[in-house]
């Protein structure tokens, strides 16, 4: 596309751009509300109310806006598309498989990311767009969008227009960032249509809204699809996770189209080549589409955490602030596009491929071995063609070492459904720092950090003050991203909430993110850690503190109720008596929860200052029975039965789930809370510069 010198008027597309626009239009569909009692098939004209636009992203999958798709009848819609350029229109039924968010709030429009995936009810032949694999796809520059709109006299027309990205609106920290676009003739009904980068030749966004003067609107980056919910259970098939299913099908489709020896139609890779685009500094569009197709034949990564470990092992720091974390093999490849140019960039991509070959699998199918071999063939051929002999030898050693020893059985069979593919690793942690504002009561600054192994990855922060009752909503997107970075199947990350002692009874475990989900404490272990705001312990307490921490992590532990005796509240022992308790002791406070009197606060303070970094207590409950014998008995059983401190967060998680599920044998633990946290170095300073 050409412009006059000095940013003048558009001069029209060149041949490659025209071909790209045709590919975009071919895959753009319109979405209708089915008529009552509709049949999925039928003549055009009985499609029901027109809702908006969408586009095919994989065989039998349509991407659109949630506010378009969710206006159907019971998540059912009609998708209307043309079989060929100038061909007849075809209608097929579809169902909304996923939406972000799943429900519209009580007031206002549909909030960002405002995306939805529709799956067709029957297989049909149709073209698909090429979606960018980059973590950030929409920057300032020239783009093109397409969609359906009323062309006059009630006739729906498929339109395409050029546009420019001119900025953003809303806050990326909340997950609701939208991209501002400047365009002429953006009409009602075009919401849900694709936005394509005219330089790279790939779809990077979805039209969301238009300004009232039709001269612009907003779009959502396709990378926001990475925020789709992650299945809690380990995947046993590609279809268990819609995100992986859609993008694997997308990449296989484009590789098959490009490598098809009989089809002579121009593919997306052909057009990208003609545009002069490159897939990062190391790959041509043809190499990229071939590689992605081979990666898409492998089972996906076990988790985002495992994928980040692979990227970290390649010496490539992942940008965590302001972008969704990668989830699939294609996402990791997109991260590597920012690597240095030349042979080093290609070497990093090939090492990434070898990591994908050797990675742990969430499941294994008979074709997995064939997929590994095909990816190795690509690595070997690429290295032989472009890289030095020492590197080629390194690749060969990686191929045949470890589980690829010559003579070893290569074809692995799926494990039984009740047997894990691999033992779970120790859960990682998401750390939420909450700092009250002394000059603004009931307001907090906060920051979220993902703690993978020994590395702290900043996620986001806010130093503008958030009211206590608004914390769950404001933190939902940031915590959700951090959980995706750290969770593994059946092994959710621990949420560690760092607060001042005065905030110990802040019930973060009861937060619901989003509002219609299960409480955080039911989804994952949630523990409290006291910040270092209180006075520093004396020099003779510090060695005891370290000794206690080491002792309870080698076991066995022993619980000791320190503020209740025979159902009567008693003062917490004085400091000397507390320090005399055996190092394996875990203090249990039965009567503290919610009390603000001087004696209770001082007693809990003595426990914290006495060198105990693992403490159990329970939240206040107005309806709690007077007798606490059951709590004493079961708390002792829980602590002593856990054996070592590392198991306590999971034990508390199991109790909270039991209470939620109505298990009467666990009702004694309602409101239970756990302080757990070895004193860490001071938390990092501000992640970003304040404006």
Please describe what this structure looks like:
It is a single chain. With 691 residues, the protein is α+β, with helices and mostly antiparallel strands. Helices cover 28% and strands 23% of the residues. The protein has helices at residues 15-27, 66-69, 242-259, 268-275, 285-295, 304-313, 329-336, 343-358, 368-386, 389-400, 471-486, 520-523, 541-552, 575-579, 598-609, 629-642, 648-660; strands at 28-33, 49-58, 61-64, 76-82, 89-100, 115-120, 141-150, 156-169, 178-183, 194-197, 202-210, 216-221, 429-436, 443-452, 455-467, 494-499, 526-530, 558-561, 564-565, 568-569, 585-589, 614-618, 672-676. The strands form 5 sheets. The protein has a 6-stranded antiparallel β-barrel. It has a 6-stranded antiparallel β-barrel with strand order 7-8-9-12-11-10. The protein has a 5-stranded mixed β-sheet with strand order 15-14-13-16-17. Helix 3 (242-259) crosses helix 5, helix 8 (343-358) runs antiparallel to helix 9 and helix 9 runs antiparallel to helix 10. The protein starts with 14 loop residues before the first helix and ends in a 15-residue tail after the last strand. The model is unreliable at 1-10, 402-423 and 680-691 (pLDDT under 50).
- The number of helical elements comes to 17
Mean pLDDT across every amino acid position: 84
Structural class by helix and strand composition: alpha+beta
Q: Which percent range fits the helix content?
A: 25-40%
SSE map:
Elements: H1 15-27, E1 28-33, E2 49-58, E3 61-64, H2 66-69, E4 76-82, E5 89-100, E6 115-120, E7 141-150, E8 156-169, E9 178-183, E10 194-197, E11 202-210, E12 216-221, H3 242-259, H4 268-275, H5 285-295, H6 304-313, H7 329-336, H8 343-358, H9 368-386, H10 389-400, E13 429-436, E14 443-452, E15 455-467, H11 471-486, E16 494-499, H12 520-523, E17 526-530, H13 541-552, E18 558-561, E19 564-565, E20 568-569, H14 575-579, E21 585-589, H15 598-609, E22 614-618, H16 629-642, H17 648-660, E23 672-676
Helix pairs in contact: 1-4, 3-5, 7-8, 8-9, 8-10, 9-10
């Amino acid at each position: 596309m050409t412009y006059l010198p000095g940013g003048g008027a558009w001069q029209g597309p060149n041949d490659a751009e025209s071909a790209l626009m045709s590919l975009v239009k071919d895959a753009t569909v319109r979405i209708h509300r089915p008529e009552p009692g509709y049949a999925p098939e039928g003549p055009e004209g009985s499609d029901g109310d027109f809702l908006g636009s969408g586009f095919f992203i994989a065989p039998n999958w349509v991407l659109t806006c949630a506010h378009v798709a969710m206006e159907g009848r019971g998540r059912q819609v009609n998708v209307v598309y043309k079989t060929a350029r100038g061909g007849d229109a075809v209608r097929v039924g579809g169902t909304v498989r996923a939406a972000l968010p799943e429900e519209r709030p009580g007031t206002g429009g549909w909030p960002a990311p405002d995306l939805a995936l529709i799956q067709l009810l029957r297989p049909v032949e149709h073209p698909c767009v090429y979606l960018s694999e980059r973590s950030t796809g929409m920057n300032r520059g020239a783009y093109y969008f397409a969609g359906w709109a009323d062309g006059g006299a009630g006739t729906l027309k498929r339109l395409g227009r050029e546009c420019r990205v001119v900025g953003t609106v809303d806050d990326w920290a909340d997950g609701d960032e939208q991209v501002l676009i400047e365009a002429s003739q953006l009409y009602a009904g075009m919401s849900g249509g694709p936005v394509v980068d005219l330089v790279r030749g790939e779809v990077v966004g979805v039209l969301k809204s238009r300004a009232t003067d039709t001269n612009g609107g907003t779009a959502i980056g396709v990378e926001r699809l990475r925020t789709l919910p992650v299945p809690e259970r380990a995947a046993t098939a590609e279809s268990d996770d819609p995100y992986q299913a859609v993008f694997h099908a997308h990449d296989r489709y484009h590789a098959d189209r490009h490598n098809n020896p009989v089809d002579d139609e121009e593919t997306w890779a052909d057009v990208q080549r003609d545009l002069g685009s490159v897939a990062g500094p190391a790959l041509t569009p043809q190499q990229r589409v071939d590689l992605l197709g081979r990666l898409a034949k492998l089972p996906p990564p076990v988790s985002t955490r495992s994928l980040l470990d692979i990227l970290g092992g390649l010496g490539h720091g992942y940008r965590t602030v302001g972008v969704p974390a990668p989830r699939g093999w294609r996402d990791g490849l997109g991260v590597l596009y920012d690597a240095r140019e030349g042979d080093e960039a290609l070497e990093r991509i090939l090492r990434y491929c070898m990591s994908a070959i050797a990675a742990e699998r969430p499941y294994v199918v008979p074709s997995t071995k064939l997929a590994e071999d095909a990816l190795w063939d690509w690595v070997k051929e690429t290295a032989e063609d472009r890289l030095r002999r020492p590197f080629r030898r390194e690749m060969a050693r990686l191929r045949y070492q470890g589980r690829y020893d010559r003579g070893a059985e290569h074809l692995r069979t799926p494990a039984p459904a009740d047997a894990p593919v691999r033992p779970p690793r120790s859960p990682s942690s998401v750390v939420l720092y909450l700092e009250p504002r002394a000059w603004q009561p009931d307001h907090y600054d906060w920051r979220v950090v993902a703690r993978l192994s020994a590395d702290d990855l900043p996620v986001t922060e806010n130093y503008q003050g958030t009211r206590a009752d608004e914390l769950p909503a404001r933190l939902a997107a940031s915590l959700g991203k951090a959980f995706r970075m750290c969770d593994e199947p059946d092994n959710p990350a621990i949420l560690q909430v760092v607060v001042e002692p005065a905030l110990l009874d802040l019930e973060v475990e009861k937060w619901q993110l989003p509002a219609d989900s299960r409480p955080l404490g039911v989804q994952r272990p949630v523990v409290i850690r006291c910040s270092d705001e209180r006075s520093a312990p004396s020099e003779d307490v510090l060695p005891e503190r370290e000794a206690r921490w080491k002792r309870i992590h080698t076991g066995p532990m022993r619980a000791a109720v320190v503020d209740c005796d025979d159902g009567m509240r008693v003062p917490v022992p004085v400091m000397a008596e507390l320090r005399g308790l055996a190092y394996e002791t875990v203090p249990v406070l039965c009567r503290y929860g919610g009390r603000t009197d001087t004696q209770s606060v001082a007693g809990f303070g003595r426990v914290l200052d006495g060198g105990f970094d693992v403490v159990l207590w329970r939240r206040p409950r107005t309806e709690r029975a007077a007798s606490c014998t059951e709590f004493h008995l079961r708390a002792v059983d829980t602590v002593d039965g856990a054996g070592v401190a590392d198991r306590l967060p999971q034990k508390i998680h199991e109790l909270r789930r039991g209470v939620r599920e109505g298990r009467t044998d666990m009702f004694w633990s309602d409101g239970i809370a756990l302080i757990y946290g070895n004193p860490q170095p001071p938390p990092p300073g501000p992640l970003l510069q304040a404006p």
